[in-house]
Design a protein that fits this description.
The structure holds 2 protein chains of 2 kinds. Chain A is an alpha+beta fold. Helices cover 23% and strands 36% of the residues of chain A. Chain B is mostly helical. Chain B has 2 domains: 4-49, no CATH class; 62-264, MetI-like (MetI-like fold, Orthogonal Bundle), CATH 1.10.3720. In chain B, helix 1 packs across helix 11, helix 4 (100-112) runs antiparallel to helix 6 (135-159) and helix 7 (163-171) runs antiparallel to helix 8. Classes of the chains: A alpha+beta, B mainly alpha.
Protein backbone atom coordinates (compact mmCIF):
# COMPACT_ATOMS: atom_id res chain seq x y z
CA UNK A 1 0.00 0.00 0.00
CA UNK A 2 2.95 2.34 0.49
CA UNK A 3 2.95 5.44 2.61
CA UNK A 4 0.48 7.18 4.84
CA UNK A 5 0.22 10.23 2.62
CA UNK A 6 0.49 9.51 -1.07
CA UNK A 7 0.65 11.81 -4.06
CA UNK A 8 0.26 9.88 -7.28
CA UNK A 9 1.06 11.45 -10.63
CA UNK A 10 -0.26 14.85 -9.59
CA UNK A 11 -0.43 17.46 -12.32
CA UNK A 12 -1.52 21.00 -11.49
CA UNK A 13 -1.90 23.91 -13.90
CA UNK A 14 -2.58 27.60 -13.50
CA UNK A 15 -4.40 28.27 -16.73
CA UNK A 16 -1.99 27.39 -19.52
CA UNK A 17 1.00 27.01 -17.24
CA UNK A 18 1.61 23.53 -15.86
CA UNK A 19 3.24 23.98 -12.46
CA UNK A 20 3.36 20.36 -11.33
CA UNK A 21 4.23 17.93 -14.10
CA UNK A 22 3.32 14.60 -12.56
CA UNK A 23 4.63 14.30 -9.02
CA UNK A 24 4.79 10.99 -7.13
CA UNK A 25 5.48 11.16 -3.44
CA UNK A 26 4.93 8.84 -0.54
CA UNK A 27 5.26 9.92 3.09
CA UNK A 28 5.28 7.40 5.92
CA UNK A 29 3.38 7.98 9.16
CA UNK A 30 5.39 10.08 11.57
CA UNK A 31 7.90 11.07 8.92
CA UNK A 32 9.19 14.59 8.41
CA UNK A 33 9.60 15.35 4.72
CA UNK A 34 11.03 18.57 3.35
CA UNK A 35 10.12 19.86 -0.10
CA UNK A 36 13.18 21.75 -1.24
CA UNK A 37 13.64 23.86 -4.33
CA UNK A 38 14.24 27.34 -5.60
CA UNK A 39 11.34 29.74 -6.09
CA UNK A 40 8.95 28.74 -8.85
CA UNK A 41 9.84 25.05 -8.69
CA UNK A 42 6.31 24.12 -7.60
CA UNK A 43 7.02 23.20 -3.98
CA UNK A 44 4.38 25.49 -2.50
CA UNK A 45 1.91 24.40 -5.19
CA UNK A 46 2.54 20.78 -4.23
CA UNK A 47 1.93 21.58 -0.56
CA UNK A 48 -1.26 23.50 -1.35
CA UNK A 49 -2.42 20.64 -3.54
CA UNK A 50 -1.91 18.24 -0.62
CA UNK A 51 -3.79 20.70 1.61
CA UNK A 52 -6.67 20.87 -0.86
CA UNK A 53 -6.38 24.42 -2.14
CA UNK A 54 -5.53 23.24 -5.66
CA UNK A 55 -7.22 20.37 -7.44
CA UNK A 56 -4.87 18.36 -9.64
CA UNK A 57 -5.98 17.93 -13.25
CA UNK A 58 -4.54 14.41 -13.19
CA UNK A 59 -3.44 12.13 -10.41
CA UNK A 60 -4.62 11.57 -6.88
CA UNK A 61 -3.92 12.43 -3.25
CA UNK A 62 -4.47 9.63 -0.75
CA UNK A 63 -4.35 9.63 3.03
CA UNK A 64 -4.11 6.23 4.64
CA UNK A 65 -5.53 4.69 1.47
CA UNK A 66 -8.50 7.09 1.32
CA UNK A 67 -8.72 9.15 -1.87
CA UNK A 68 -9.10 12.80 -0.88
CA UNK A 69 -8.36 14.38 -4.25
CA UNK A 70 -11.81 15.96 -4.48
CA UNK A 71 -12.30 16.59 -0.78
CA UNK A 72 -12.38 20.23 0.39
CA UNK A 73 -9.49 21.36 2.64
CA UNK A 74 -11.56 21.19 5.82
CA UNK A 75 -12.22 17.46 5.42
CA UNK A 76 -8.64 16.32 5.10
CA UNK A 77 -7.55 16.28 8.74
CA UNK A 78 -4.53 18.41 7.97
CA UNK A 79 -3.34 21.73 9.31
CA UNK A 80 -1.37 24.21 7.26
CA UNK A 81 1.02 26.74 8.80
CA UNK A 82 1.41 29.69 6.45
CA UNK A 83 4.49 31.66 5.60
CA UNK A 84 2.59 34.83 6.52
CA UNK A 85 1.26 33.02 9.65
CA UNK A 86 -2.26 34.19 8.64
CA UNK A 87 -3.33 34.80 12.23
CA UNK A 88 -6.79 36.28 12.62
CA UNK A 89 -6.28 39.85 13.79
CA UNK A 90 -9.68 40.09 15.48
CA UNK A 91 -9.04 37.11 17.77
CA UNK A 92 -6.74 36.81 20.77
CA UNK A 93 -3.93 34.25 20.92
CA UNK A 94 -6.20 31.87 22.83
CA UNK A 95 -9.02 32.29 20.35
CA UNK A 96 -6.65 31.69 17.43
CA UNK A 97 -5.28 28.52 19.01
CA UNK A 98 -8.72 27.36 20.12
CA UNK A 99 -10.55 27.98 16.85
CA UNK A 100 -10.03 24.46 15.52
CA UNK A 101 -11.39 23.09 18.78
CA UNK A 102 -14.43 25.36 18.57
CA UNK A 103 -15.10 24.04 15.06
CA UNK A 104 -14.89 20.49 16.44
CA UNK A 105 -17.33 21.40 19.22
CA UNK A 106 -14.89 20.51 21.98
CA UNK A 107 -16.40 21.43 25.36
CA UNK A 108 -15.26 24.67 26.98
CA UNK A 109 -13.34 22.95 29.78
CA UNK A 110 -11.52 20.50 27.54
CA UNK A 111 -10.76 23.26 25.02
CA UNK A 112 -9.31 25.54 27.70
CA UNK A 113 -7.13 22.70 28.95
CA UNK A 114 -5.90 21.94 25.44
CA UNK A 115 -5.20 25.62 24.73
CA UNK A 116 -3.21 25.89 27.97
CA UNK A 117 -1.30 22.74 27.03
CA UNK A 118 -0.41 24.09 23.57
CA UNK A 119 0.54 27.46 25.03
CA UNK A 120 2.86 25.79 27.52
CA UNK A 121 4.33 23.59 24.80
CA UNK A 122 5.24 26.64 22.73
CA UNK A 123 6.17 29.02 25.53
CA UNK A 124 3.24 31.36 24.97
CA UNK A 125 1.98 31.21 28.55
CA UNK A 126 1.75 34.91 29.31
CA UNK A 127 0.32 35.90 25.94
CA UNK A 128 -3.11 34.23 25.85
CA UNK A 129 -5.09 37.44 25.89
CA UNK A 130 -2.98 39.39 23.41
CA UNK A 131 -4.01 40.08 19.84
CA UNK A 132 -1.62 38.99 17.05
CA UNK A 133 -0.83 42.64 16.31
CA UNK A 134 0.85 42.92 19.71
CA UNK A 135 3.23 39.99 19.20
CA UNK A 136 6.75 39.75 17.79
CA UNK A 137 7.47 37.75 14.64
CA UNK A 138 8.73 34.75 16.58
CA UNK A 139 5.70 34.76 18.86
CA UNK A 140 3.32 34.95 15.90
CA UNK A 141 5.09 32.06 14.30
CA UNK A 142 4.57 29.99 17.44
CA UNK A 143 0.89 30.97 17.65
CA UNK A 144 0.45 29.86 14.03
CA UNK A 145 2.13 26.56 14.87
CA UNK A 146 0.02 26.22 18.03
CA UNK A 147 -3.18 26.82 16.10
CA UNK A 148 -2.24 23.96 13.81
CA UNK A 149 -1.09 21.63 16.60
CA UNK A 150 -4.12 22.25 18.84
CA UNK A 151 -6.34 20.04 16.68
CA UNK A 152 -3.86 17.13 16.69
CA UNK A 153 -3.74 17.03 12.90
CA UNK A 154 -2.98 13.78 11.09
CA UNK A 155 -0.64 15.69 8.85
CA UNK A 156 1.08 18.99 9.56
CA UNK A 157 1.89 21.10 6.51
CA UNK A 158 4.45 23.88 6.87
CA UNK A 159 4.82 26.50 4.15
CA UNK A 160 8.17 28.18 4.77
CA UNK A 161 7.14 29.07 8.32
CA UNK A 162 10.65 30.17 9.25
CA UNK A 163 11.48 32.45 6.36
CA UNK A 164 10.09 35.58 8.01
CA UNK A 165 12.09 35.13 11.19
CA UNK A 166 15.41 36.70 12.15
CA UNK A 167 18.36 34.49 11.25
CA UNK A 168 19.23 33.78 14.88
CA UNK A 169 15.73 32.89 16.00
CA UNK A 170 15.35 30.72 12.93
CA UNK A 171 18.16 28.42 14.04
CA UNK A 172 16.54 27.68 17.40
CA UNK A 173 13.01 27.41 16.01
CA UNK A 174 14.23 24.82 13.51
CA UNK A 175 15.26 22.51 16.30
CA UNK A 176 12.16 23.28 18.33
CA UNK A 177 9.86 22.33 15.48
CA UNK A 178 11.63 19.11 14.57
CA UNK A 179 11.93 18.09 18.23
CA UNK A 180 8.22 18.78 18.70
CA UNK A 181 7.32 16.84 15.57
CA UNK A 182 9.33 13.84 16.74
CA UNK A 183 7.90 13.98 20.24
CA UNK A 184 4.31 14.20 19.03
CA UNK A 185 4.91 11.73 16.19
CA UNK A 186 3.17 13.94 13.65
CA UNK A 187 3.53 13.37 9.93
CA UNK A 188 4.89 16.61 8.53
CA UNK A 189 5.55 18.08 5.11
CA UNK A 190 7.72 21.16 5.18
CA UNK A 191 8.33 23.51 2.26
CA UNK A 192 11.57 25.46 2.21
CA UNK A 193 14.11 26.98 -0.13
CA UNK A 194 16.78 26.83 2.58
CA UNK A 195 19.03 23.81 1.99
CA UNK A 196 20.45 23.74 5.49
CA UNK A 197 16.99 24.03 7.04
CA UNK A 198 15.83 21.01 5.06
CA UNK A 199 18.97 19.04 5.95
CA UNK A 200 18.66 19.75 9.67
CA UNK A 201 14.93 19.21 10.05
CA UNK A 202 13.87 16.50 7.66
CA UNK A 203 14.00 12.72 7.69
CA UNK A 204 13.75 12.79 3.95
CA UNK A 205 14.27 15.54 1.40
CA UNK A 206 12.37 15.92 -1.85
CA UNK A 207 14.16 18.17 -4.30
CA UNK A 208 11.90 19.75 -6.88
CA UNK A 209 12.95 21.32 -10.13
CA UNK A 210 10.59 22.84 -12.69
CA UNK A 211 7.54 21.03 -11.38
CA UNK A 212 9.17 17.62 -11.22
CA UNK A 213 10.92 15.69 -8.51
CA UNK A 214 14.66 15.75 -9.10
CA UNK A 215 15.59 13.44 -6.24
CA UNK A 216 14.14 11.97 -3.06
CA UNK A 217 16.36 10.73 -0.29
CA UNK A 218 17.71 11.14 3.20
CA UNK A 219 19.77 14.27 3.82
CA UNK A 220 22.95 12.16 3.52
CA UNK A 221 21.84 10.66 0.21
CA UNK A 222 20.93 13.91 -1.51
CA UNK A 223 24.06 15.55 -0.15
CA UNK A 224 26.58 12.82 -0.91
CA UNK A 225 24.99 11.01 -3.85
CA UNK A 226 23.23 13.64 -5.95
CA UNK A 227 21.29 11.94 -8.73
CA UNK A 228 21.71 14.69 -11.25
CA UNK A 229 23.76 17.70 -12.12
CA UNK A 230 20.92 19.94 -10.89
CA UNK A 231 20.79 18.28 -7.48
CA UNK A 232 24.56 18.41 -7.11
CA UNK A 233 24.57 22.13 -7.89
CA UNK A 234 21.57 22.80 -5.67
CA UNK A 235 23.17 20.94 -2.77
CA UNK A 236 26.20 23.20 -2.93
CA UNK A 237 28.59 21.51 -5.38
CA UNK A 238 28.93 24.72 -7.34
CA UNK A 239 32.35 24.05 -8.86
CA UNK A 240 32.11 22.51 -12.29
CA UNK A 241 34.79 21.28 -14.71
CA UNK A 242 34.80 19.28 -17.93
CA UNK A 243 36.51 15.90 -18.12
CA UNK A 244 36.96 13.15 -20.68
CA UNK A 245 36.06 9.81 -19.19
CA UNK A 246 36.71 6.29 -20.39
CA UNK A 247 34.31 3.95 -18.64
CA UNK A 248 35.28 0.34 -18.11
CA UNK A 249 33.99 -2.17 -15.58
CA UNK A 250 34.55 -0.93 -12.04
CA UNK A 251 36.89 1.89 -12.98
CA UNK A 252 36.55 5.19 -14.73
CA UNK A 253 39.66 6.47 -16.43
CA UNK A 254 39.88 10.23 -16.65
CA UNK A 255 41.97 11.20 -19.68
CA UNK A 256 44.68 13.78 -19.22
CA UNK A 257 43.31 17.23 -20.03
CA UNK A 258 44.76 20.73 -20.20
CA UNK A 259 44.33 21.17 -16.46
CA UNK A 260 44.14 17.70 -15.04
CA UNK A 261 46.30 14.63 -14.75
CA UNK A 262 45.21 11.20 -15.91
CA UNK A 263 43.43 9.45 -13.05
CA UNK A 264 41.80 6.10 -12.34
CA UNK A 265 38.67 6.47 -10.24
CA UNK A 266 36.43 3.73 -8.89
CA UNK A 267 32.95 3.67 -10.40
CA UNK A 268 31.02 3.51 -7.10
CA UNK A 269 27.70 2.86 -8.81
CA UNK A 270 27.86 5.85 -11.11
CA UNK A 271 25.84 5.45 -14.26
CA UNK A 272 28.24 6.91 -16.76
CA UNK A 273 29.27 6.02 -20.31
CA UNK A 274 32.56 6.92 -21.98
CA UNK A 275 32.77 10.42 -23.36
CA UNK A 276 32.62 14.00 -22.27
CA UNK A 277 31.49 14.43 -18.66
CA UNK A 278 30.78 17.18 -16.17
CA UNK A 279 32.37 16.96 -12.77
CA UNK A 280 31.05 18.86 -9.77
CA UNK A 281 32.61 19.23 -6.34
CA UNK A 282 32.25 21.36 -3.23
CA UNK A 283 34.72 24.05 -2.37
CA UNK A 284 35.57 22.39 0.96
CA UNK A 285 36.01 18.87 -0.52
CA UNK A 286 39.46 19.57 -1.89
CA UNK A 287 42.96 19.44 -0.56
CA UNK A 288 45.05 22.23 -1.93
CA UNK A 289 48.87 21.88 -2.26
CA UNK A 290 51.54 24.17 -3.55
CA UNK A 291 52.68 22.95 -6.99
CA UNK A 292 56.38 23.40 -6.10
CA UNK A 293 56.24 21.38 -2.91
CA UNK A 294 54.01 18.73 -4.50
CA UNK A 295 55.41 15.26 -4.77
CA UNK A 296 53.61 14.94 -8.10
CA UNK A 297 51.67 11.73 -7.56
CA UNK A 298 48.25 12.26 -5.96
CA UNK A 299 47.78 8.55 -5.26
CA UNK A 300 45.04 6.18 -6.45
CA UNK A 301 41.41 7.27 -6.65
CA UNK A 302 42.29 10.95 -6.51
CA UNK A 303 41.81 13.46 -9.31
CA UNK A 304 44.42 16.17 -9.54
CA UNK A 305 43.70 19.54 -11.15
CA UNK A 306 46.33 22.16 -11.80
CA UNK A 307 45.59 25.86 -11.54
CA UNK A 308 46.68 29.25 -10.36
CA UNK A 309 45.32 31.15 -7.35
CA UNK A 310 43.51 34.29 -8.54
CA UNK A 311 42.12 35.79 -5.35
CA UNK A 312 42.05 35.00 -1.64
CA UNK A 313 39.57 36.08 1.00
CA UNK A 314 38.81 35.12 4.57
CA UNK A 315 35.08 34.60 5.27
CA UNK A 316 35.96 32.98 8.61
CA UNK A 317 37.24 29.53 9.49
CA UNK A 318 38.82 28.64 6.17
CA UNK A 319 40.57 30.69 3.50
CA UNK A 320 38.56 30.98 0.30
CA UNK A 321 40.58 30.83 -2.91
CA UNK A 322 39.39 31.63 -6.40
CA UNK A 323 41.45 29.38 -8.64
CA UNK A 324 41.80 29.71 -12.39
CA UNK A 325 41.85 26.53 -14.44
CA UNK A 326 42.36 28.11 -17.82
CA UNK A 327 39.08 29.90 -18.51
CA UNK A 328 37.15 28.18 -15.75
CA UNK A 329 37.33 29.34 -12.18
CA UNK A 330 36.57 27.26 -9.12
CA UNK A 331 36.30 28.09 -5.43
CA UNK A 332 38.42 26.20 -2.97
CA UNK A 333 38.44 26.48 0.82
CA UNK A 334 41.69 25.65 2.55
CA UNK A 335 43.11 25.88 6.03
CA UNK A 336 46.21 27.67 4.82
CA UNK A 337 46.40 30.76 2.72
CA UNK A 338 47.96 30.54 -0.74
CA UNK A 339 48.85 33.90 -2.16
CA UNK A 340 47.47 35.12 -5.46
CA UNK A 341 49.58 33.92 -8.37
CA UNK A 342 50.69 30.68 -6.68
CA UNK A 343 50.55 27.60 -8.91
CA UNK A 344 48.58 24.96 -6.99
CA UNK A 345 47.36 21.37 -7.27
CA UNK A 346 43.78 20.57 -6.36
CA UNK A 347 43.25 17.01 -5.17
CA UNK A 348 39.74 15.58 -5.05
CA UNK A 349 38.93 12.13 -3.73
CA UNK A 350 36.67 10.23 -6.11
CA UNK A 351 33.86 9.84 -3.52
CA UNK A 352 33.65 13.62 -3.36
CA UNK A 353 33.52 14.06 -7.10
CA UNK A 354 30.11 14.00 -8.78
CA UNK A 355 30.25 12.94 -12.42
CA UNK A 356 27.43 13.36 -14.89
CA UNK A 357 27.33 12.90 -18.64
CA UNK A 358 27.53 16.19 -20.50
CA UNK A 359 24.11 16.88 -21.91
CA UNK B 1 7.38 96.97 8.90
CA UNK B 2 8.45 95.03 5.84
CA UNK B 3 6.47 93.46 3.05
CA UNK B 4 7.05 90.05 4.63
CA UNK B 5 5.11 91.07 7.71
CA UNK B 6 2.06 91.73 5.54
CA UNK B 7 2.07 88.29 3.97
CA UNK B 8 -0.53 87.03 6.40
CA UNK B 9 -3.15 89.41 4.99
CA UNK B 10 -4.05 87.58 1.74
CA UNK B 11 -3.85 84.23 3.52
CA UNK B 12 -6.04 85.53 6.33
CA UNK B 13 -8.54 86.95 3.87
CA UNK B 14 -8.76 83.65 1.98
CA UNK B 15 -9.27 81.68 5.17
CA UNK B 16 -11.87 84.19 6.29
CA UNK B 17 -13.80 83.89 3.04
CA UNK B 18 -13.61 80.11 3.20
CA UNK B 19 -14.87 80.13 6.77
CA UNK B 20 -17.69 82.43 5.79
CA UNK B 21 -18.66 80.23 2.85
CA UNK B 22 -18.80 77.20 5.15
CA UNK B 23 -20.20 78.67 8.33
CA UNK B 24 -22.27 81.56 6.94
CA UNK B 25 -25.21 79.46 5.76
CA UNK B 26 -24.99 77.31 8.89
CA UNK B 27 -25.12 80.40 11.11
CA UNK B 28 -28.14 81.63 9.19
CA UNK B 29 -29.75 78.21 9.68
CA UNK B 30 -29.09 78.23 13.43
CA UNK B 31 -30.36 81.80 13.72
CA UNK B 32 -33.57 80.96 11.92
CA UNK B 33 -34.06 77.93 14.14
CA UNK B 34 -34.20 80.09 17.26
CA UNK B 35 -36.05 83.06 15.74
CA UNK B 36 -39.51 84.18 16.79
CA UNK B 37 -39.74 87.28 14.58
CA UNK B 38 -37.33 88.41 11.83
CA UNK B 39 -38.16 90.56 8.83
CA UNK B 40 -36.56 92.97 6.39
CA UNK B 41 -34.60 95.23 6.77
CA UNK B 42 -33.28 93.95 10.11
CA UNK B 43 -29.87 92.26 10.04
CA UNK B 44 -30.61 90.08 13.07
CA UNK B 45 -33.81 88.51 14.42
CA UNK B 46 -35.99 90.81 16.48
CA UNK B 47 -37.03 88.17 18.97
CA UNK B 48 -35.49 84.83 19.97
CA UNK B 49 -37.28 81.81 21.35
CA UNK B 50 -38.05 78.13 21.07
CA UNK B 51 -41.79 78.22 20.39
CA UNK B 52 -41.31 76.80 16.88
CA UNK B 53 -39.32 73.87 18.30
CA UNK B 54 -42.25 73.12 20.54
CA UNK B 55 -44.53 73.42 17.51
CA UNK B 56 -42.38 71.13 15.35
CA UNK B 57 -42.15 68.44 18.02
CA UNK B 58 -45.68 68.81 19.35
CA UNK B 59 -47.87 65.72 18.99
CA UNK B 60 -49.85 67.56 16.32
CA UNK B 61 -46.77 68.62 14.35
CA UNK B 62 -45.68 66.37 11.51
CA UNK B 63 -41.98 66.39 12.38
CA UNK B 64 -41.99 63.49 14.83
CA UNK B 65 -43.93 61.24 12.48
CA UNK B 66 -41.74 62.28 9.54
CA UNK B 67 -38.61 61.68 11.56
CA UNK B 68 -39.76 58.20 12.53
CA UNK B 69 -40.76 57.43 8.93
CA UNK B 70 -37.41 58.68 7.67
CA UNK B 71 -35.44 56.61 10.15
CA UNK B 72 -37.54 53.52 9.47
CA UNK B 73 -37.11 53.86 5.71
CA UNK B 74 -33.38 54.45 6.16
CA UNK B 75 -33.01 51.37 8.35
CA UNK B 76 -34.95 49.17 5.91
CA UNK B 77 -32.87 50.54 3.03
CA UNK B 78 -29.68 49.66 4.92
CA UNK B 79 -30.91 46.13 5.60
CA UNK B 80 -31.87 45.47 1.98
CA UNK B 81 -28.84 47.20 0.41
CA UNK B 82 -26.21 45.70 2.69
CA UNK B 83 -27.96 42.34 2.59
CA UNK B 84 -27.52 42.35 -1.18
CA UNK B 85 -24.10 43.99 -1.09
CA UNK B 86 -22.48 41.39 1.19
CA UNK B 87 -22.78 38.45 -1.27
CA UNK B 88 -22.26 40.72 -4.29
CA UNK B 89 -19.23 42.46 -2.81
CA UNK B 90 -17.73 39.17 -1.64
CA UNK B 91 -18.14 37.62 -5.08
CA UNK B 92 -16.64 40.67 -6.76
CA UNK B 93 -13.73 40.74 -4.33
CA UNK B 94 -12.93 37.02 -4.24
CA UNK B 95 -13.78 35.39 -7.52
CA UNK B 96 -11.27 37.45 -9.49
CA UNK B 97 -13.84 38.05 -12.17
CA UNK B 98 -12.16 39.44 -15.24
CA UNK B 99 -15.16 41.73 -15.61
CA UNK B 100 -14.98 42.98 -12.04
CA UNK B 101 -14.06 46.53 -13.01
CA UNK B 102 -16.70 46.55 -15.71
CA UNK B 103 -19.39 45.34 -13.32
CA UNK B 104 -18.45 47.98 -10.75
CA UNK B 105 -18.62 50.64 -13.46
CA UNK B 106 -21.95 49.34 -14.75
CA UNK B 107 -23.33 49.76 -11.25
CA UNK B 108 -22.52 53.44 -11.49
CA UNK B 109 -24.36 53.98 -14.77
CA UNK B 110 -27.84 54.60 -13.28
CA UNK B 111 -26.23 57.46 -11.35
CA UNK B 112 -25.00 58.95 -14.60
CA UNK B 113 -28.51 59.69 -15.85
CA UNK B 114 -30.48 62.69 -14.61
CA UNK B 115 -32.46 61.68 -11.53
CA UNK B 116 -35.75 63.16 -12.53
CA UNK B 117 -36.64 61.08 -15.63
CA UNK B 118 -35.46 57.93 -13.87
CA UNK B 119 -37.69 58.52 -10.85
CA UNK B 120 -40.66 59.59 -12.94
CA UNK B 121 -40.39 56.31 -14.82
CA UNK B 122 -39.99 54.35 -11.61
CA UNK B 123 -43.06 56.07 -10.24
CA UNK B 124 -45.01 55.10 -13.37
CA UNK B 125 -43.90 51.46 -13.11
CA UNK B 126 -44.52 51.30 -9.35
CA UNK B 127 -48.00 52.65 -9.95
CA UNK B 128 -48.86 49.47 -11.89
CA UNK B 129 -47.80 47.35 -8.92
CA UNK B 130 -49.52 49.56 -6.36
CA UNK B 131 -46.20 50.45 -4.79
CA UNK B 132 -46.73 54.22 -5.02
CA UNK B 133 -47.30 55.83 -1.66
CA UNK B 134 -46.06 52.81 0.24
CA UNK B 135 -43.03 52.51 2.52
CA UNK B 136 -41.88 49.49 0.46
CA UNK B 137 -41.93 51.57 -2.73
CA UNK B 138 -39.83 54.31 -1.15
CA UNK B 139 -37.40 51.76 0.31
CA UNK B 140 -36.97 50.17 -3.13
CA UNK B 141 -36.21 53.55 -4.70
CA UNK B 142 -33.66 54.27 -1.98
CA UNK B 143 -32.11 50.83 -2.47
CA UNK B 144 -31.48 51.46 -6.18
CA UNK B 145 -29.49 54.45 -5.05
CA UNK B 146 -27.81 53.02 -1.94
CA UNK B 147 -26.83 49.69 -3.49
CA UNK B 148 -24.13 51.35 -5.57
CA UNK B 149 -22.32 52.69 -2.50
CA UNK B 150 -22.96 49.50 -0.59
CA UNK B 151 -21.51 47.21 -3.28
CA UNK B 152 -18.50 49.42 -3.95
CA UNK B 153 -17.55 49.73 -0.31
CA UNK B 154 -18.33 46.07 0.47
CA UNK B 155 -16.11 44.99 -2.44
CA UNK B 156 -13.31 47.11 -1.03
CA UNK B 157 -13.86 45.78 2.48
CA UNK B 158 -13.74 42.14 1.34
CA UNK B 159 -10.73 42.76 -0.90
CA UNK B 160 -8.86 43.97 2.17
CA UNK B 161 -9.31 40.56 3.85
CA UNK B 162 -6.27 38.44 3.00
CA UNK B 163 -7.28 35.17 1.33
CA UNK B 164 -4.78 33.26 3.46
CA UNK B 165 -6.75 34.16 6.58
CA UNK B 166 -9.67 32.24 5.10
CA UNK B 167 -7.48 29.37 3.96
CA UNK B 168 -6.05 29.10 7.47
CA UNK B 169 -9.56 28.52 8.79
CA UNK B 170 -10.41 26.05 6.02
CA UNK B 171 -7.24 24.06 6.64
CA UNK B 172 -8.05 23.45 10.29
CA UNK B 173 -11.56 22.27 9.58
CA UNK B 174 -13.93 25.20 9.09
CA UNK B 175 -16.45 24.91 6.27
CA UNK B 176 -16.66 27.69 3.69
CA UNK B 177 -19.74 29.18 5.34
CA UNK B 178 -18.25 28.95 8.83
CA UNK B 179 -15.06 30.61 7.59
CA UNK B 180 -17.08 33.45 6.12
CA UNK B 181 -19.00 34.03 9.35
CA UNK B 182 -16.07 33.62 11.75
CA UNK B 183 -13.20 35.15 9.82
CA UNK B 184 -14.17 37.14 6.73
CA UNK B 185 -17.20 38.97 8.07
CA UNK B 186 -15.66 40.19 11.36
CA UNK B 187 -12.55 41.44 9.59
CA UNK B 188 -14.60 43.18 6.89
CA UNK B 189 -17.07 44.54 9.48
CA UNK B 190 -15.66 48.09 9.75
CA UNK B 191 -15.96 48.53 5.98
CA UNK B 192 -19.46 47.08 5.97
CA UNK B 193 -20.39 49.38 8.84
CA UNK B 194 -19.15 52.33 6.81
CA UNK B 195 -21.20 51.23 3.82
CA UNK B 196 -24.33 50.96 6.02
CA UNK B 197 -23.71 54.45 7.29
CA UNK B 198 -23.39 55.84 3.78
CA UNK B 199 -26.57 54.11 2.71
CA UNK B 200 -28.37 55.30 5.85
CA UNK B 201 -27.36 58.91 5.28
CA UNK B 202 -28.19 58.80 1.59
CA UNK B 203 -31.62 57.44 2.40
CA UNK B 204 -32.21 59.99 5.14
CA UNK B 205 -31.39 62.87 2.76
CA UNK B 206 -33.08 61.47 -0.33
CA UNK B 207 -35.71 63.79 -1.76
CA UNK B 208 -36.49 63.31 -5.48
CA UNK B 209 -37.35 59.63 -5.46
CA UNK B 210 -39.34 59.91 -2.25
CA UNK B 211 -41.25 62.83 -3.70
CA UNK B 212 -42.30 60.98 -6.86
CA UNK B 213 -42.95 57.58 -5.35
CA UNK B 214 -43.93 58.35 -1.75
CA UNK B 215 -45.71 61.73 -1.64
CA UNK B 216 -48.16 62.57 -0.31
CA UNK B 217 -48.82 59.35 1.66
CA UNK B 218 -45.26 58.84 2.87
CA UNK B 219 -43.78 61.97 4.39
CA UNK B 220 -40.09 61.99 5.25
CA UNK B 221 -38.09 64.80 6.83
CA UNK B 222 -36.73 66.13 3.50
CA UNK B 223 -40.32 66.30 2.18
CA UNK B 224 -41.38 68.18 5.31
CA UNK B 225 -38.41 70.49 4.85
CA UNK B 226 -39.44 71.13 1.26
CA UNK B 227 -43.04 71.89 2.18
CA UNK B 228 -42.01 74.20 5.00
CA UNK B 229 -39.34 75.93 2.92
CA UNK B 230 -41.55 76.51 -0.10
CA UNK B 231 -44.29 77.82 2.20
CA UNK B 232 -41.91 80.49 3.52
CA UNK B 233 -41.86 78.87 6.95
CA UNK B 234 -38.13 79.26 7.52
CA UNK B 235 -38.21 78.40 11.21
CA UNK B 236 -39.70 74.97 10.64
CA UNK B 237 -37.44 74.40 7.62
CA UNK B 238 -34.34 75.33 9.65
CA UNK B 239 -35.28 73.16 12.60
CA UNK B 240 -35.90 70.20 10.29
CA UNK B 241 -32.56 70.80 8.57
CA UNK B 242 -30.78 70.86 11.93
CA UNK B 243 -32.45 67.60 12.91
CA UNK B 244 -31.23 66.09 9.62
CA UNK B 245 -27.70 67.26 10.38
CA UNK B 246 -27.46 65.33 13.64
CA UNK B 247 -27.11 61.79 12.24
CA UNK B 248 -24.76 63.00 9.50
CA UNK B 249 -22.35 64.53 11.98
CA UNK B 250 -22.63 61.62 14.39
CA UNK B 251 -21.82 59.11 11.64
CA UNK B 252 -18.92 61.13 10.38
CA UNK B 253 -17.23 60.52 13.73
CA UNK B 254 -18.06 56.83 13.56
CA UNK B 255 -16.56 56.52 10.07
CA UNK B 256 -13.46 58.36 11.14
CA UNK B 257 -13.01 55.96 14.02
CA UNK B 258 -13.76 52.67 12.29
CA UNK B 259 -12.89 52.94 8.64
CA UNK B 260 -9.29 51.91 8.14
CA UNK B 261 -7.21 53.54 5.46
CA UNK B 262 -6.39 50.19 3.84
CA UNK B 263 -10.10 49.60 3.21
CA UNK B 264 -10.59 53.04 1.70
CA UNK B 265 -7.59 52.57 -0.55
CA UNK B 266 -9.18 49.50 -2.12
CA UNK B 267 -12.42 51.23 -3.15
CA UNK B 268 -12.93 50.68 -6.84
CA UNK B 269 -10.02 48.31 -7.33
Amino acid sequence: MGGYLEVAGARVSYGELEVLKGVDLSVAKGEFVALLGSSGCGKTTLLRTIAGFHTPSHGAIRIDGRDVTREPPDRRGMALVFQSYALWPHMTVDQNIGYGLKIRRVGAGAAAARIAEVRALLGLDALGRRKPGELSGGQRQRVALGRALAINPDILLLDEPLSNLDARIRLTVRHEISALQRRLGITAVHVTHDREEAMVMADRIVILNGGEIAQVGTPQQVYNQPASDFVAAFMGAENVIDLDVLAGGETLIVAEGPHNRRAALSRQGRDLASGSAMARFRSEAISLVDARGSDGEPGPGVLQLEGVVGQVSYPGGLWRHVIHLGERTVMVDAEHCFEAGTAVHLRIRDDRLYLFPRS
Amino acid sequence: MTLNDLKWIPRGLCLGLLAFAIFGPLTNLVLWAVTERWYFPHALPLEYGFTYWAKVFSPRGNATVSLLTSVMIACLTVVVSVGLAIPAGYALARLKLPLRGVILLLLLIPQAFPNLPVYVNIARIFYQFGLNGTILGVVLVHVTHGLVYAVWIATAAFSAVDGELEEAARSIGASAMRTFVDVTLPIAAPGLLASSIFVFLESLDEFTGTYFVGAPDVSTLPLLLYTAGSGGNYQIASITALVLLVPSIAFMFVIEKFLRADVLSKVGR
